[in-house]
Amino acid sequence: MFEQTLEFFQQFPTAFNIFVVIFSLMIGSFLNVVVYRLPKMMHNGWYLECREFLADEVTNIPAKEFEHITLSKPDSTCPKCGHKIRFYENIPVINWLFLQGKCSQCKNSISFRYPLVESATALLSLVIANQFGVSIETLLLLILTWALICLTLIDFDHMLLPDQIVMPLLWLGLLVNINTTFVPLSDAVIGAAVGYMSLFSVFWVFKLLTGKEGMGHGDFKLFALFGAWLGWQLLPILILMASVVGAVVGISLMLFKNHQREQAIPFGPYLAVAGWITLLWGEGIWSWYLLQIS
Known about the structure:
Layout: H1 2-11, H2 13-53, H3 94-98, H4 113-132, H5 136-158, H6 163-176, H7 185-210, H8 217-230, H9 235-256, H10 268-293
Helix pairs in contact: 1-2, 2-4, 2-5, 4-5, 5-6, 5-10, 6-7, 6-8, 7-8, 8-10, 9-10
C-alpha cells in the first residue's frame, strides 16, 4: 500500500503537492500550539527545578500555582471566555475565515497570527515538495522547515531557542548525512563545529570588548545545526544574509518604532530564514556572490 501510494504521487506530482499542502495546514495548526505552550512548559520546569535546588531557602515562600500543561493537555480553549474549541472549529484557516476571526462563543477576536502560521507552513512546505518531489529529502526538509517555524516564532516572542527542538535537529543533520544525503559526513561534522565555534568566538570577543552579551547561546547551536545539514562551505553566505537582514530590521525598528538601541533583538529568526533559503538555493546564491566580488 505504501509503495503504491508513492508510485501514485510520483506519477501525479500535483496530487502530491495537494497532499503536502493539506497535511502542512494541519501541522501548522499544531505548530501554533507548540509555540504557545512549549515556552510555558519550560518556564514551569525551570521554576520547579529552582524550588527543588533552593528547597531550604524557599520554605517560607508560598509555592507558585500554575496549570499543568503539555502539548496535548489541556484542550484548546478561547483565552477570553474559556470556550472549549471543538474539533470542527479547529479546521486550519477555513474556520478562522468562516468565524470571521472571532470566537464562536464570546465573539472576541482571534489573532490573525493563527491562520498566518498555518498558511505560511503550507506555502513553505509546498516549495519544498515542488523542488524535491517524492523523496526522502522532501520528508527531512519538511521536518526541518516545521521546526524552524517554531523556533522563529518562539525566539520572537520569548528570546528563546529551545534545546528540545534545536539539539535533536542538529544530531538529525549529522545522521542524515552519513549517506551524503545533502553533503558528505565530514563536511557536516566540520560544519557543525565551525558553526558553533564561530559565533561562540564572536560572543566572547564582543563580551570582552564591551562587557555585554551580544547574542544568546541558542544562536550558536542553531548555526551549528545548519552546519550539520549544509556543511561548512555555505555557512559564510548564510551568516552574511542573516546579518544583513538583522541589521536592516534593527535599524528600521529604531527609526520607525522608537526601538531603544540597548533593547535586545532576537537573531535566531534571521538565522532560521537565511538558513532555510540557503538549504534550497544556497549554492546558486554563493556562486552568484563569488562572481560579483571577482
